[in-house]
Design brief:
The chain is an alpha+beta fold. It has four helices and 14 strands. 16% of the residues lie in helices and 36% in strands. The strands form three sheets. Strands 1-11-10-13-14 form a five-stranded antiparallel β-sheet. The chain has a five-stranded mixed β-barrel with strand order 3-4-5-7-6. Strands 8-9-12 form a three-stranded antiparallel β-sheet. It starts with a helix and ends with a strand.
């Protein structure tokens, strides 16, 4: 009797989990799934692996030279998080010399101390798995720092003051990426990036982009203000993604001119909860943020 009771319980749990999965995927019939992201050790890269909660997030201050000198193990395509090294968060002062938009939608930054280089990467917050990370807010803030101070596309010659970069250590598989450390160690993901404290305010670059989206929380209307330093607004859209990386809103934005957006949009009926918004300019991401729907 106990044997059959266990089987009945197992079947009930299986059916319930499947029902919840189907509900999550079909909650909005028009939702477009965003399935970008990498494959090799992807959950480790975006802190959604089973050991991510055990990572020590209080950073150790170090240097790029010291990180490049560490002995690292060899990683395979599905190697779990390495004990010790990949449970450690580091903070370095460095310069960013290049920024690339990767095919997996990560922002790839080349970091240097003037002699040594290493890679730091910031995941796309609406890619599958990354969208479920507890560090989504940090990804958004870091990418917006890059968007507003370096640029929204690939920038092969970055010229900004020194920055402080904080990220979790990650051993990548050697694949000839630009700026890679000799030991293939990266800061991936980057959890914080800001200008170094020794840089005077008067020496900071003028932001390339400023964005205000309100109110937050919202009910059915959202005001959007965006100003670009250079005149290149064209074919702009406002998008909303749910926590499962489903695109549930995609609305065109009217522009005052090629430098400024100042408009209010009506949002269709949505379920109460947290959403990630995205402003697109001519097919290119320029800004992300988090909004709460309180319907």
């Amino acid at each position: 009797m106990k044997k059959y009771s266990f089987r009945i319980l197992y079947v009930a749990i299986y059916l319930l989990s499947n029902s919840l999965h189907v509900f999550a995927q079909t909650e909005n019939e028009n939702a477009e799934k965003t399935t970008c992201g990498g494959t090799e050790r992807w959950s480790v890269k975006v802190l959604t692996d089973s050991n991510a909660a055990a990572v020590h997030y209080t950073p150790i201050t170090t240097t790029i030279s010291a990180l490049c000198a560490l002995t690292t193990p060899s990683a395979g395509t599905s190697t779990p998080r390495f004990i010790g090294l990949e449970y450690t968060t580091y903070r370095v002062v460095c310069n960013v010399i290049a920024k690339r938009n990767e095919t997996d939608n990560d922002y790839h930054l080349e970091l240097t101390n003037g002699t040594d280089t290493m890679v730091g990467e910031i995941p796309d917050p609406v890619c599958s798995q990354a969208a479920l990370s507890t560090h989504v807010s940090e990804y958004i803030a870091c990418r917006n720092f890059v968007n507003t101070n370096i640029g929204t596309g690939t920038v092969l010659s970055v010229s900004i003051p020194p920055v402080v970069v904080t990220g979790v250590a990650f051993v990548d598989i050697p694949h000839g990426v630009s700026g890679a450390a000799p030991n293939n160690l990266e800061l991936h993901p980057i959890l914080d990036i800001h200008f170094a404290g020794g840089t005077g305010i008067q020496n900071l670059p003028e932001p390339l982009l400023s964005v205000t989206v309100s109110p937050n929380p919202f009910i059915n209307k959202i005001g959007i203000k965006a100003v670009l330093k250079k005149e290149n607004f064209s074919n702009c859209y406002f998008q909303l993604y749910d926590v499962y990386a489903n695109k549930v809103v995609d609305i065109p934005l009217s522009q005052i001119d090629k430098r400024e957006i100042n408009t209010t949009i009506d949002i269709p009926e949505l379920h109460k909860g947290i959403y990630i918004f995205r402003i697109m300019n001519n097919g290119e991401l320029i800004y992300d943020g988090k909004l709460e729907c309180k319907k």
